Each structure stands twice: as structure tokens, then as C-alpha cells.
Amino acid sequence: MTLRNPYLKAGRLADVIAAITALGNYPYYKLSFDKWAEKIVNDPGQAGKWQAVFAEHPEFFRISGDKASLVWRRQFRKLFHTKHMGEVTREEFDAMSQEEKERISRRPLSSGELGTLIETTVNLHQRALEQKVASRYWIPLATASLAFLGSLVGGLIVS
Fold this sequence. Notes:
mainly alpha, 3-stranded antiparallel beta sheet, 8 helices
């Protein structure tokens, strides 16, 4: 049984690009599915759809319990202050109250980093389309073979 490539689902390329953009830019790097749905399409009721997008594209997203994040952002240190929109030092972080530490996240992606992920997404989508076309190489061969067999059988019946 072959699994259908998730990039071939209708609208999937646009969904993955939208998710990468939202998860890459938002000050907090990890949110629940309904919060991401609200940030991406302004509809928390679509949480299930976005959970499926995240789950079907582990090359970009990670799910932890009921929350999702962008893999690339998980590589950054957790020293980005979401209120001041800048990084703090480890010493500044250690001196913060627990309430203030809750405002600390991982830094958003730069436009170049986002561009790289979007380009990768487009390339993966293109490859999926090419593989789909290549997987149908046998159809013309089978049609020609059946036509040949049909003419052979027809010739034998006539003679």
C-alpha cells in the first residue's frame, strides 16, 4: 500500500507556506492548534485541519502534546523577549521573575530563513508532482500492449 504524498492534496502547498510564515514570524514559537488556526486563518475552529498539516509535514513542524512548533525555530536558544522583541542575555534571563520568563520564547525567523523554507516547500511540492507523473509511465505502455494483443487476437479470429 503506497501512501499518498501530502503535497498532492488540494491547497496543501498554500497551507504549508501559510503555516511556515505564521510559525516562523509569530513572537511565540509554540502554540496550541486552535491558537495557530486563529493566527493563520482567523478561525480557531479549524484547529483539526492545521493539526493534520503539522502532522503530515514533519520535515517542517513538530508536535508536542497539543502544541505545534516550527523545527527550525526549535534550534534557537530560548532567549527572545516577546514584549521587547529582542534577545536577552542568559544573565538577564536568570534575573527575571517567573512571570517575566513566560514572555521568553525562541527568536522568529529572518526573512532569508523564511525564504529558504518556502523555497524548500515549493521544491518538495514540485517533486511530488513529478513523481506522480513518473508513476504513470506504464499507462501508455499498457494501452499499446492491449491494442497490440487486440489486433493479434482479431487477426487470429479472422484467419
